[in-house]
Amino acid sequence: MKLFGASKLVAAVAGVALMTGLAIAQQPTFFRIGTGGTAGTYYPVGGLIANAISAAGDKGVPGLVATAIASNGSVANVNAIQSGAAESGFSQSDVAYWAYTGTGLYDGKPKVEDLRIIATLYPETIHLVAAKSAGIKSVKDLKGKRVALDEPGSGTLVDARIVLAAYGLTEKDIKPEYLKPGPAGDRLRDGALDAFFFVGGYPTGAISELASSSGIELVPITGPEVDKLLAEYKFFAKDKVPAETYKGVGATDTISVNAQWLTSAKQPDQLVYDIVKVLWNDASRAALDAGHAKGKLITLQNATNGLGIPLHPGAERFYKEAGVLK
């Protein structure tokens, strides 16, 4: 009887352990992706990626629940990754480099040494959008004008200051406002603003809507000032917005940085490996191609371009297996 009782007890304990194990296995893993304002490019692209890698679809990472979260952009996302408020986030390559090295915007601040890259996504174009009535044909023409530079904590604000400086201007030379492209576009349409900066993939919804409803000018960012800027800041590259990307706007020379998907070195290697593997499968490819104009530029071949900071080990392992990284 004692032996029989002991057997029953062992069986019962084993059963509880099995059920507990199943319960643990079934608990979802949450993976937040910090993006940007809802009118920009980060937010819709983040939503596409979150849907692609989540387990809700049978081709996602088992047990993973990924969500795209609106934010103030690059700097805010780096801070969220550092603090643990988000597992990952999008950032401009310049901001990521400054954070990791403790230079530029992060000069005098502690280095964010745990910052790692999941993937380079696509080029982010610097847009300088002006009202047709403002008479702005060059960056130099911004002097004395009402110009929105985006919100504090955004990569756009950092780059706008660099561009202004390249042409010998500071915020004291303009009438600065600190607005996201959505509200900035509204003010420009209403005649309360002359121009605004936006860094993001083209076409972006807020600018497309503005071009269709009231017409805009895209101001070129080019000339010897830009050549000097490119020599000093290696994370910038020459870029061109094709004609009719925005209604009524001709081809416009400008510059760009890379959009990157970042995480922390503290995230498990296997989890990041699984996420990257799903990101580049056929189902995700189809979703990216169909979901947003920038989706076609998010490719495995570009994923390791212009890194600037280390890849996450889980991502690095996949890219080596896929043959895009030596």
TrEMBL record:
CDD domains in UniProt: PBP2_TAXI_TRAP
Gene3D superfamilies, sorted: Periplasmic binding protein-like II
Entry superkingdom: Bacteria
SUPFAM superfamilies linked to this entry: Periplasmic binding protein-like II
Signal peptide location: 1-25
Pfam families in the record: NMT1_3
Keywords carried by this UniProt record: Signal
KW Signal (keyword) present: yes
PANTHER family hit by this protein: SLL1037 PROTEIN (PTHR42941)
The protein's name: Immunogenic protein
Organism listed in the record: Ancylobacter defluvii
